[in-house]
Amino acid sequence: MVLKPGLEGVPVTQSSICDIDGIKGELRYRGYPIAELASKSSFLETAYLLIWGNLPSSQELRDFENAVQMHRRLSFRVRDMMKCFPATGHPMDALQSSAASLGLFYSRRAIDNPEYIYDAVVRLIAKIPTMVAAFQLIRKGQDPIQPRDDLPYSANFLYMLTEREPDPLAARVLDRCLILHAEHSLNASTFSARVTASTLTDPYAVIASAVGTLAGPLHGGANEDVIAMLETIGTPDKANNYLNNAIAQKSKIMGFGHREYKVKDPRASLLQEFAEDLFARFGKDEMYEVAKAVEQNAGPLLGPRGIYPNVDFYSGLVYRKLGIPRDLFTPIFAISRVAGWLAHWREQLSANRIFRPTQIYTGEKNRTWKALEERANN
Ligand code: SDX
Description:
Elements: E1 18-21, E2 26-29, E3 32-33, H1 34-40, H2 43-52, H3 58-70, H4 76-83, H5 91-106, H6 114-139, H7 153-162, H8 168-181, H9 188-197, H10 203-214, H11 222-233, H12 239-248, H13 266-282, H14 286-302, H15 311-321, H16 329-350
Antiparallel strand pairs: 1-2, 2-3
Helix pairs in contact: 1-8, 2-8, 2-16, 3-6, 5-6, 5-10, 6-7, 6-16, 7-8, 8-13, 8-15, 8-16, 9-10, 9-16, 10-16, 11-14, 11-15, 12-14, 13-15
The structure holds s-citryldethia Coenzyme A.
Residues 6, 184, 187, 218-220, 222, 252-260, 305, 307, 310-312 line the site of s-citryldethia Coenzyme A.
Protein backbone atom coordinates (compact mmCIF):
# COMPACT_ATOMS: atom_id res chain seq x y z
CA MET A 1 0.00 0.00 0.00
CA VAL A 2 1.26 3.45 -0.91
CA LEU A 3 0.29 6.25 1.45
CA LYS A 4 -0.93 9.45 -0.26
CA PRO A 5 -1.03 12.17 2.41
CA GLY A 6 -3.89 14.55 1.78
CA LEU A 7 -5.10 12.14 -0.95
CA GLU A 8 -3.10 14.21 -3.44
CA GLY A 9 -3.77 12.97 -6.95
CA VAL A 10 -6.05 10.15 -5.77
CA PRO A 11 -9.39 10.06 -7.64
CA VAL A 12 -12.13 9.09 -5.18
CA THR A 13 -15.18 9.81 -7.29
CA GLN A 14 -16.37 10.64 -10.78
CA SER A 15 -18.07 14.00 -11.17
CA SER A 16 -19.65 16.08 -13.91
CA ILE A 17 -20.10 19.26 -11.88
CA CYS A 18 -16.90 21.26 -12.09
CA ASP A 19 -13.74 21.05 -14.17
CA ILE A 20 -10.43 22.68 -13.24
CA ASP A 21 -7.37 22.98 -15.49
CA GLY A 22 -4.73 23.97 -12.97
CA ILE A 23 -2.02 24.52 -15.55
CA LYS A 24 -4.02 26.77 -17.87
CA GLY A 25 -5.86 28.38 -14.93
CA GLU A 26 -9.31 27.48 -16.22
CA LEU A 27 -12.47 26.71 -14.27
CA ARG A 28 -15.84 25.61 -15.63
CA TYR A 29 -19.14 24.77 -13.93
CA ARG A 30 -21.07 22.14 -15.91
CA GLY A 31 -18.98 23.14 -18.94
CA TYR A 32 -19.53 26.93 -18.68
CA PRO A 33 -16.42 29.11 -18.16
CA ILE A 34 -16.42 30.84 -14.78
CA ALA A 35 -15.83 34.33 -16.24
CA GLU A 36 -18.90 33.99 -18.45
CA LEU A 37 -21.06 32.89 -15.53
CA ALA A 38 -19.71 35.71 -13.37
CA SER A 39 -20.59 38.33 -15.98
CA LYS A 40 -23.88 36.93 -17.36
CA SER A 41 -25.49 34.81 -14.66
CA SER A 42 -26.91 35.39 -11.20
CA PHE A 43 -26.00 33.37 -8.12
CA LEU A 44 -29.38 31.61 -8.00
CA GLU A 45 -29.20 30.74 -11.70
CA THR A 46 -25.67 29.37 -11.22
CA ALA A 47 -26.80 27.41 -8.17
CA TYR A 48 -29.61 25.90 -10.24
CA LEU A 49 -27.13 25.00 -12.97
CA LEU A 50 -24.78 23.33 -10.50
CA ILE A 51 -27.45 21.42 -8.61
CA TRP A 52 -29.75 20.31 -11.45
CA GLY A 53 -27.12 20.10 -14.20
CA ASN A 54 -28.51 22.53 -16.81
CA LEU A 55 -29.31 26.22 -17.07
CA PRO A 56 -32.95 26.78 -16.06
CA SER A 57 -35.65 27.93 -18.46
CA SER A 58 -37.12 31.33 -17.52
CA GLN A 59 -40.08 29.55 -15.84
CA GLU A 60 -37.79 27.18 -13.92
CA LEU A 61 -35.66 30.10 -12.75
CA ARG A 62 -38.71 32.12 -11.67
CA ASP A 63 -40.05 29.13 -9.74
CA PHE A 64 -36.70 28.52 -8.07
CA GLU A 65 -36.25 32.20 -7.15
CA ASN A 66 -39.80 32.36 -5.77
CA ALA A 67 -39.32 29.19 -3.74
CA VAL A 68 -36.06 30.51 -2.28
CA GLN A 69 -37.72 33.83 -1.48
CA MET A 70 -40.58 32.06 0.33
CA HIS A 71 -38.21 30.07 2.53
CA ARG A 72 -35.86 32.86 3.62
CA ARG A 73 -37.43 33.31 7.03
CA LEU A 74 -36.18 31.43 10.08
CA SER A 75 -38.42 29.79 12.61
CA PHE A 76 -38.57 31.81 15.83
CA ARG A 77 -37.17 28.69 17.54
CA VAL A 78 -34.00 28.89 15.44
CA ARG A 79 -33.72 32.62 16.12
CA ASP A 80 -34.23 32.02 19.86
CA MET A 81 -31.62 29.27 19.81
CA MET A 82 -29.18 31.65 18.10
CA LYS A 83 -29.83 34.26 20.79
CA CYS A 84 -28.35 31.78 23.28
CA PHE A 85 -25.07 31.54 21.37
CA PRO A 86 -22.19 33.50 22.93
CA ALA A 87 -21.81 36.84 21.15
CA THR A 88 -18.05 36.31 21.16
CA GLY A 89 -18.34 33.01 19.25
CA HIS A 90 -17.12 32.79 15.68
CA PRO A 91 -19.92 33.22 13.09
CA MET A 92 -18.78 30.01 11.34
CA ASP A 93 -19.49 28.06 14.53
CA ALA A 94 -22.86 29.81 14.83
CA LEU A 95 -23.60 28.89 11.21
CA GLN A 96 -22.56 25.27 11.62
CA SER A 97 -24.81 24.87 14.66
CA SER A 98 -27.76 26.67 13.07
CA ALA A 99 -27.48 24.71 9.81
CA ALA A 100 -27.37 21.44 11.75
CA SER A 101 -30.45 22.49 13.73
CA LEU A 102 -32.54 22.54 10.54
CA GLY A 103 -32.38 18.75 10.64
CA LEU A 104 -34.45 18.88 13.83
CA PHE A 105 -37.24 20.65 11.99
CA TYR A 106 -37.23 19.05 8.57
CA SER A 107 -35.43 15.70 8.75
CA ARG A 108 -37.37 12.83 7.32
CA ARG A 109 -34.38 11.34 5.55
CA ALA A 110 -36.57 10.91 2.50
CA ILE A 111 -33.52 11.34 0.36
CA ASP A 112 -34.92 9.33 -2.54
CA ASN A 113 -38.02 11.57 -2.80
CA PRO A 114 -37.54 14.32 -5.45
CA GLU A 115 -39.88 16.70 -3.59
CA TYR A 116 -37.92 16.31 -0.36
CA ILE A 117 -34.69 16.93 -2.28
CA TYR A 118 -36.04 20.08 -3.97
CA ASP A 119 -37.38 21.42 -0.67
CA ALA A 120 -34.12 20.73 1.17
CA VAL A 121 -32.10 22.46 -1.58
CA VAL A 122 -34.39 25.49 -1.47
CA ARG A 123 -34.43 25.70 2.31
CA LEU A 124 -30.68 25.53 2.67
CA ILE A 125 -29.99 28.09 -0.06
CA ALA A 126 -32.70 30.35 1.35
CA LYS A 127 -31.98 30.11 5.07
CA ILE A 128 -28.18 30.06 5.30
CA PRO A 129 -27.82 33.79 4.42
CA THR A 130 -30.59 34.67 6.87
CA MET A 131 -28.72 32.77 9.59
CA VAL A 132 -25.46 34.62 8.87
CA ALA A 133 -27.22 38.00 8.96
CA ALA A 134 -29.25 37.06 12.04
CA PHE A 135 -26.16 36.13 14.07
CA GLN A 136 -24.52 39.43 13.09
CA LEU A 137 -27.43 41.45 14.53
CA ILE A 138 -27.96 39.16 17.52
CA ARG A 139 -24.35 39.46 18.61
CA LYS A 140 -24.70 43.25 18.50
CA GLY A 141 -27.64 42.90 20.91
CA GLN A 142 -30.30 43.53 18.26
CA ASP A 143 -33.19 41.48 16.92
CA PRO A 144 -32.65 40.00 13.45
CA ILE A 145 -34.62 41.80 10.76
CA GLN A 146 -36.96 40.03 8.37
CA PRO A 147 -35.98 39.48 4.73
CA ARG A 148 -37.46 41.89 2.21
CA ASP A 149 -39.49 40.18 -0.50
CA ASP A 150 -38.90 42.93 -3.05
CA LEU A 151 -35.12 42.47 -2.95
CA PRO A 152 -33.23 39.82 -4.91
CA TYR A 153 -31.01 37.28 -3.15
CA SER A 154 -27.73 39.16 -2.65
CA ALA A 155 -29.31 42.58 -2.17
CA ASN A 156 -31.58 41.08 0.48
CA PHE A 157 -28.62 39.50 2.27
CA LEU A 158 -26.79 42.85 2.43
CA TYR A 159 -30.01 44.47 3.61
CA MET A 160 -30.48 41.92 6.41
CA LEU A 161 -26.84 42.36 7.42
CA THR A 162 -26.54 46.14 7.32
CA GLU A 163 -30.21 47.15 7.77
CA ARG A 164 -29.86 49.39 4.73
CA GLU A 165 -30.91 48.79 1.15
CA PRO A 166 -27.58 48.31 -0.63
CA ASP A 167 -26.21 50.23 -3.58
CA PRO A 168 -26.99 48.21 -6.76
CA LEU A 169 -23.27 47.93 -7.64
CA ALA A 170 -22.51 46.52 -4.19
CA ALA A 171 -25.32 43.96 -4.51
CA ARG A 172 -24.21 42.92 -8.00
CA VAL A 173 -20.56 42.56 -6.92
CA LEU A 174 -21.61 40.37 -3.99
CA ASP A 175 -23.76 38.25 -6.31
CA ARG A 176 -20.78 37.82 -8.66
CA CYS A 177 -18.57 36.82 -5.69
CA LEU A 178 -21.13 34.18 -4.76
CA ILE A 179 -20.97 32.79 -8.31
CA LEU A 180 -17.17 32.54 -8.11
CA HIS A 181 -17.23 30.72 -4.77
CA ALA A 182 -20.13 28.38 -5.51
CA GLU A 183 -18.18 25.28 -6.48
CA HIS A 184 -14.64 23.97 -6.81
CA SER A 185 -14.61 20.21 -7.32
CA LEU A 186 -13.30 17.95 -4.56
CA ASN A 187 -11.91 20.52 -2.11
CA ALA A 188 -11.80 19.61 1.59
CA SER A 189 -15.30 20.81 2.52
CA THR A 190 -16.91 19.24 -0.54
CA PHE A 191 -15.14 15.98 0.20
CA SER A 192 -16.45 16.27 3.74
CA ALA A 193 -19.97 16.82 2.34
CA ARG A 194 -19.65 13.75 0.11
CA VAL A 195 -18.32 11.57 2.92
CA THR A 196 -21.24 12.61 5.13
CA ALA A 197 -23.70 12.19 2.24
CA SER A 198 -22.38 8.69 1.59
CA THR A 199 -23.81 7.51 4.95
CA LEU A 200 -27.31 8.48 3.68
CA THR A 201 -27.82 10.96 6.49
CA ASP A 202 -29.96 14.06 5.92
CA PRO A 203 -28.80 17.05 3.83
CA TYR A 204 -28.69 19.37 6.86
CA ALA A 205 -26.03 17.15 8.44
CA VAL A 206 -24.19 17.11 5.10
CA ILE A 207 -24.09 20.90 4.98
CA ALA A 208 -23.23 21.27 8.67
CA SER A 209 -20.21 19.01 8.31
CA ALA A 210 -19.06 20.90 5.22
CA VAL A 211 -19.40 24.26 7.02
CA GLY A 212 -17.18 22.95 9.81
CA THR A 213 -14.56 21.88 7.31
CA LEU A 214 -14.63 25.15 5.38
CA ALA A 215 -13.91 27.12 8.56
CA GLY A 216 -10.24 26.12 8.84
CA PRO A 217 -7.46 28.56 7.91
CA LEU A 218 -6.00 26.21 5.29
CA HIS A 219 -9.35 26.32 3.48
CA GLY A 220 -12.09 29.00 3.49
CA GLY A 221 -10.82 30.62 6.67
CA ALA A 222 -7.75 31.93 4.85
CA ASN A 223 -9.62 35.01 3.59
CA GLU A 224 -9.72 36.44 7.13
CA ASP A 225 -6.03 35.78 7.64
CA VAL A 226 -5.11 37.52 4.40
CA ILE A 227 -6.43 40.85 5.70
CA ALA A 228 -4.61 40.30 9.00
CA MET A 229 -1.40 39.62 7.03
CA LEU A 230 -1.82 42.74 4.87
CA GLU A 231 -2.36 44.84 7.98
CA THR A 232 0.73 43.35 9.60
CA ILE A 233 2.78 44.24 6.52
CA GLY A 234 1.30 47.75 6.64
CA THR A 235 2.81 49.42 3.57
CA PRO A 236 3.77 48.19 0.07
CA ASP A 237 7.51 48.80 0.62
CA LYS A 238 7.53 46.23 3.45
CA ALA A 239 6.04 43.41 1.37
CA ASN A 240 9.32 41.98 0.09
CA ASN A 241 10.91 41.84 3.52
CA TYR A 242 7.81 40.19 4.99
CA LEU A 243 7.78 37.55 2.25
CA ASN A 244 11.47 36.75 2.60
CA ASN A 245 11.15 36.36 6.37
CA ALA A 246 8.01 34.23 6.09
CA ILE A 247 9.55 31.96 3.48
CA ALA A 248 12.77 31.62 5.51
CA GLN A 249 10.68 30.57 8.52
CA LYS A 250 8.62 28.19 6.35
CA SER A 251 5.39 30.09 7.20
CA LYS A 252 2.58 30.01 4.70
CA ILE A 253 1.64 33.18 2.83
CA MET A 254 -2.12 33.28 3.32
CA GLY A 255 -4.17 33.44 0.14
CA PHE A 256 -1.35 31.82 -1.83
CA GLY A 257 -0.92 28.28 -3.13
CA HIS A 258 -3.38 25.68 -4.29
CA ARG A 259 -3.44 21.91 -4.63
CA GLU A 260 -4.90 22.16 -8.16
CA TYR A 261 -3.59 25.44 -9.60
CA LYS A 262 0.02 25.95 -10.54
CA VAL A 263 -0.84 29.43 -11.89
CA LYS A 264 -2.92 32.32 -10.53
CA ASP A 265 -6.40 31.11 -9.61
CA PRO A 266 -8.79 32.53 -12.27
CA ARG A 267 -11.16 33.53 -9.47
CA ALA A 268 -8.42 35.66 -7.89
CA SER A 269 -8.07 37.62 -11.16
CA LEU A 270 -11.84 38.19 -11.31
CA LEU A 271 -12.02 39.18 -7.64
CA GLN A 272 -9.22 41.65 -8.21
CA GLU A 273 -11.32 43.22 -11.00
CA PHE A 274 -14.35 43.37 -8.70
CA ALA A 275 -12.24 45.05 -6.01
CA GLU A 276 -11.11 47.67 -8.54
CA ASP A 277 -14.73 48.30 -9.62
CA LEU A 278 -15.66 48.92 -6.00
CA PHE A 279 -12.64 51.14 -5.33
CA ALA A 280 -13.47 53.24 -8.42
CA ARG A 281 -16.96 53.83 -7.07
CA PHE A 282 -16.57 53.92 -3.28
CA GLY A 283 -12.91 54.94 -2.79
CA LYS A 284 -9.65 53.03 -2.41
CA ASP A 285 -8.54 50.66 0.30
CA GLU A 286 -4.91 51.25 1.17
CA MET A 287 -4.44 47.53 1.81
CA TYR A 288 -5.03 46.94 -1.90
CA GLU A 289 -1.65 48.53 -2.67
CA VAL A 290 -0.08 46.22 -0.09
CA ALA A 291 -1.81 43.20 -1.67
CA LYS A 292 -0.54 44.12 -5.12
CA ALA A 293 2.98 44.52 -3.72
CA VAL A 294 2.73 41.07 -2.08
CA GLU A 295 1.61 39.51 -5.34
CA GLN A 296 4.33 41.29 -7.33
CA ASN A 297 7.14 40.45 -4.91
CA ALA A 298 5.95 36.87 -4.46
CA GLY A 299 6.23 36.31 -8.23
CA PRO A 300 9.98 35.58 -8.34
CA LEU A 301 10.01 33.98 -4.86
CA LEU A 302 7.07 31.55 -5.10
CA GLY A 303 6.06 31.57 -8.77
CA PRO A 304 8.74 29.08 -9.87
CA ARG A 305 7.19 26.61 -7.36
CA GLY A 306 3.72 27.15 -8.81
CA ILE A 307 2.51 29.16 -5.81
CA TYR A 308 0.26 32.08 -6.80
CA PRO A 309 -2.74 33.96 -5.35
CA ASN A 310 -5.80 31.79 -4.77
CA VAL A 311 -9.49 32.69 -4.40
CA ASP A 312 -8.98 33.92 -0.84
CA PHE A 313 -6.32 36.51 -1.66
CA TYR A 314 -8.51 39.34 -2.99
CA SER A 315 -11.95 38.30 -1.71
CA GLY A 316 -11.45 39.89 1.72
CA LEU A 317 -10.67 43.26 0.16
CA VAL A 318 -13.92 43.05 -1.82
CA TYR A 319 -15.98 42.12 1.25
CA ARG A 320 -14.32 44.80 3.34
CA LYS A 321 -15.31 47.43 0.79
CA LEU A 322 -18.87 46.11 0.97
CA GLY A 323 -18.76 46.93 4.69
CA ILE A 324 -18.71 43.29 5.79
CA PRO A 325 -16.90 42.50 9.08
CA ARG A 326 -13.83 40.29 8.75
CA ASP A 327 -15.17 37.27 10.60
CA LEU A 328 -18.11 37.11 8.18
CA PHE A 329 -15.89 36.55 5.13
CA THR A 330 -15.87 32.77 5.54
CA PRO A 331 -19.62 32.54 6.32
CA ILE A 332 -20.20 34.38 3.03
CA PHE A 333 -18.02 31.79 1.29
CA ALA A 334 -20.30 29.18 2.91
CA ILE A 335 -23.50 30.92 1.71
CA SER A 336 -22.24 30.44 -1.80
CA ARG A 337 -20.57 27.03 -1.48
CA VAL A 338 -23.84 25.52 -0.25
CA ALA A 339 -24.73 25.33 -3.96
CA GLY A 340 -21.68 23.18 -4.76
CA TRP A 341 -22.12 21.02 -1.66
CA LEU A 342 -25.74 20.33 -2.61
CA ALA A 343 -24.74 19.48 -6.18
CA HIS A 344 -22.23 16.96 -4.80
CA TRP A 345 -24.79 15.63 -2.31
CA ARG A 346 -27.14 14.78 -5.20
CA GLU A 347 -24.35 13.38 -7.32
CA GLN A 348 -23.07 11.24 -4.46
CA LEU A 349 -26.54 9.77 -3.90
CA SER A 350 -26.93 9.00 -7.59
CA ALA A 351 -24.13 6.40 -7.40
CA ASN A 352 -23.51 5.94 -3.71
CA ARG A 353 -21.06 3.75 -1.91
CA ILE A 354 -20.11 4.64 1.65
CA PHE A 355 -16.63 6.18 1.94
CA ARG A 356 -14.41 3.92 3.93
CA PRO A 357 -10.74 4.26 2.98
CA THR A 358 -8.05 2.24 4.62
CA GLN A 359 -4.96 3.08 6.69
CA ILE A 360 -1.44 1.87 7.26
CA TYR A 361 -1.30 0.93 10.93
CA THR A 362 1.88 2.13 12.67
CA GLY A 363 0.99 1.54 16.32
CA GLU A 364 2.06 -1.05 18.88
CA LYS A 365 1.06 -4.70 18.50
CA ASN A 366 0.23 -7.29 21.17
CA ARG A 367 1.01 -5.31 24.34
CA THR A 368 0.71 -6.97 27.74
CA TRP A 369 -1.86 -5.45 30.12
CA LYS A 370 -0.48 -4.04 33.39
CA ALA A 371 -2.66 -3.42 36.41
CA LEU A 372 -2.92 0.23 37.46
CA GLU A 373 -0.73 -0.21 40.56
CA GLU A 374 2.03 -1.81 38.47
CA ARG A 375 2.33 1.12 36.05
CA ALA A 376 5.21 3.52 36.54
CA ASN A 377 4.36 7.22 36.86
CA ASN A 378 5.53 9.15 33.83
C1 SDX B 1 -9.28 27.32 -0.58
O1 SDX B 1 -9.04 22.95 -2.80
C2 SDX B 1 -9.79 23.93 -3.13
O2 SDX B 1 -10.28 23.96 -4.24
C3 SDX B 1 -9.94 24.98 -2.08
C4 SDX B 1 -10.56 26.34 -2.53
C5 SDX B 1 -12.05 26.16 -2.86
O3 SDX B 1 -12.58 26.94 -3.66
O4 SDX B 1 -12.69 25.30 -2.25
O5 SDX B 1 -9.88 26.88 -3.63
C6 SDX B 1 -10.57 27.35 -1.36
O6 SDX B 1 -9.21 26.58 0.37
C7 SDX B 1 -8.11 28.16 -1.02
C8 SDX B 1 -6.84 27.91 -0.19
C9 SDX B 1 -6.84 28.84 1.03
N1 SDX B 1 -5.66 28.55 1.91
C10 SDX B 1 -4.62 29.39 1.99
O7 SDX B 1 -4.52 30.39 1.30
C11 SDX B 1 -3.61 28.98 3.03
C12 SDX B 1 -2.20 29.08 2.47
N2 SDX B 1 -2.03 28.06 1.45
C13 SDX B 1 -1.59 26.81 1.79
O8 SDX B 1 -1.45 26.40 3.10
C14 SDX B 1 -1.56 25.71 0.73
O9 SDX B 1 -1.08 26.25 -0.46
C15 SDX B 1 -2.87 24.96 0.50
C16 SDX B 1 -3.52 24.48 1.78
C17 SDX B 1 -3.87 25.85 -0.23
C18 SDX B 1 -2.57 23.74 -0.39
O10 SDX B 1 -1.85 22.82 0.36
P1 SDX B 1 -1.06 21.56 -0.26
O11 SDX B 1 -1.49 21.29 -1.63
O12 SDX B 1 -1.16 20.48 0.74
O13 SDX B 1 0.41 22.10 -0.33
P2 SDX B 1 1.51 22.03 0.81
O14 SDX B 1 1.04 22.75 2.01
O15 SDX B 1 1.92 20.59 0.99
O16 SDX B 1 2.68 22.85 0.16
C19 SDX B 1 3.53 22.31 -0.85
C20 SDX B 1 4.79 23.13 -0.87
C21 SDX B 1 5.42 23.25 0.52
O17 SDX B 1 6.81 23.45 0.35
P3 SDX B 1 7.85 22.22 0.51
O18 SDX B 1 7.60 21.68 1.90
O19 SDX B 1 7.50 21.25 -0.57
O20 SDX B 1 9.18 22.88 0.35
O21 SDX B 1 4.48 24.48 -1.25
C22 SDX B 1 4.74 25.37 -0.15
C23 SDX B 1 4.81 24.49 1.08
O22 SDX B 1 5.58 25.07 2.10
N3 SDX B 1 3.60 26.28 -0.04
C24 SDX B 1 3.65 27.53 0.40
C25 SDX B 1 2.35 28.01 0.35
N4 SDX B 1 1.53 27.05 -0.12
C26 SDX B 1 2.30 25.99 -0.35
N5 SDX B 1 4.67 28.25 0.83
C27 SDX B 1 4.39 29.51 1.24
N6 SDX B 1 3.15 30.04 1.21
C28 SDX B 1 2.12 29.31 0.78
N7 SDX B 1 0.88 29.82 0.80
